[in-house]
Amino acid sequence: FGALMDPLNESSCFFAWPLKCPEFSWPTSEQLMKTGSTSFCSLSPPAVFICSFMVAAPIFGYLGDRFNRKIILSCGIFFWSAVTFSSSFITEQYFWLFVLSRGLVGIGEASYSTIAPTIIGDLFTKNTRTLMLSVFYFAIPLGSGLGYITGSSVKQAAGHWHWALRVSKRPPFPVSCACLNVLNEGLHLFCKIARRFASHGMAAAGLLCSPHLFRLFSRSYVFSSLATSAVSFATGALGMWIPLYLHRAQVVQKTAETCTSQPCGTKDSLIFGAITCFTGFLGVITGAGATKWCRLKTQRADPLVCAVGMLGSAIFTCLIFVAAKSSIVGAYVCIFIGETLLFSNWAITADILMYVVIPTRRATAVALQSFTSHLLGDAGSPYLIGFISDVIQQSTKESPLWEFLSLGYALMLCPFVVVLGGMFFLATALFFLSDRAKAEQQ
């Protein structure tokens, strides 16, 4: 459930907060059409969220391998649900407080993102574990898609950005309140952690030099983590810019007009969100089914299925930019197929990690992989795409055509990164069997 609400909250928050920071007001049409919100101010909330998430994830990974994972998970869900709901009451004069709240949400969400897959790995094995991980990771694209829908439509219907956050937090908040029954045990856990750190001094810092940490870095783990970073890079950039890109395509084709007053139409966000929901379900199920069938043929099925999905996704991602010049429907078809193939590897990648990492170090391994995927992936990809688009646009004359083309040229970086991710999965396949055997022997 947390896997569903995290991306729903993150995506709806992106469509909820205003793009112009100081007054929390909307930008002019000129500002909107200049590659959307490429300024630091407008993109600072997701930047702070991702940075705090990256910092907190390794900490929760360390704690998850040493203390009660269920308590850490429950307290984390309660914390980020409460912070997100509270942030919906921040007034227009306190943008800095809104940004700070996103950082606190990142800390809370790092707890469940690190701990939840590890708990699933503890409870299930083999094909059953793949199925359960598929259910867990299916919730991520579903939540992202629902976030695109609720964030844009609720804000337009209610007339204020606050309600998008309140609606996105309404389902999990009562559930997270159920975590209150573990708060006493959670306080006891906190005291236990404090006593251990006090008794061992700088022992926690010594983790970075411990042999247990270096055992995580098997070749399969490293290559699959790099491949996951490629997936994160593409999903972060495409999720941020594709709705705007398709709107600009329609402006060029004269089937839509430039938005000159707020609220703007939400059709592209709604369609993209619906596609993301459905392709998330279809991709995760397809990937799990293909892996289960291929395991009958080869023991390297997991990384090979991921590699095929990545390389196929790169092809259809390229075709998005070809089709968008003449047919929006064709672009949506390419998005549908490309996202299905891209999402097919999420659960399998987690399964690969469970195979090549011993159970007592899985939380740390998940945390470091999450840190790497965000650092090399969606922490910077939206900004990089926006920067490239701005550079191209500044070297040409100002027109709707070049606004459309410049963003398309910048987004063309995504399929190349996806191909690189496919290569990393092929490299994972070379070492997968030997690394799995080593993990089973420990």
3D architecture notes:
By secondary structure, this protein is an all-alpha fold. It has a single domain, classed as Growth Hormone, Chain: A (Up-down Bundle), CATH 1.20.1250.20. The chain is 78% helix and 0% strand. The protein has 19 helices and no strands. The protein has helices at 2-16, 29-33, 40-64, 69-87, 95-123, 126-158, 162-169, 172-177, 183-200, 211-216, 219-252, 267-294, 301-323, 328-343, 346-356, 362-376, 381-394, 400-411, 413-441. Mean pLDDT is 75; it is low at 18-42, 170-195 and 197-211.
Quickly describe the structure.
The chain has helices at residues 2-16, 29-33, 40-64, 69-87, 95-123, 126-158, 162-169, 172-177, 183-200, 211-216, 219-252, 267-294, 301-323, 328-343, 346-356, 362-376, 381-394, 400-411, 413-441. It is mainly alpha-helical.
Layout of helices and strands, plus pairs?
Elements: H1 2-16, H2 29-33, H3 40-64, H4 69-87, H5 95-123, H6 126-158, H7 162-169, H8 172-177, H9 183-200, H10 211-216, H11 219-252, H12 267-294, H13 301-323, H14 328-343, H15 346-356, H16 362-376, H17 381-394, H18 400-411, H19 413-441
Helix pairs in contact: 1-6, 1-7, 3-5, 3-16, 4-5, 4-7, 5-6, 5-16, 6-7, 6-12, 6-15, 11-15, 11-16, 11-17, 11-18, 11-19, 12-13, 12-14, 13-14, 13-15, 13-19, 17-18
What's the main sheet like?
A: none
What level of helicity do the residues show? over 70%
Q: What's the CATH class label?
A: Mainly Alpha
Task: Give the DSSP E fraction (strand runs of 2 or more residues).
Answer: under 5%
Q: According to CATH, what is the topology?
A: Growth Hormone, Chain: A
**Unreliable residue stretches:** 18-42, 170-195, 197-211
Q: Give the beta-strand count.
A: 0
User: How many helices in DSSP terms?
Assistant: 19
Mean pLDDT: 75
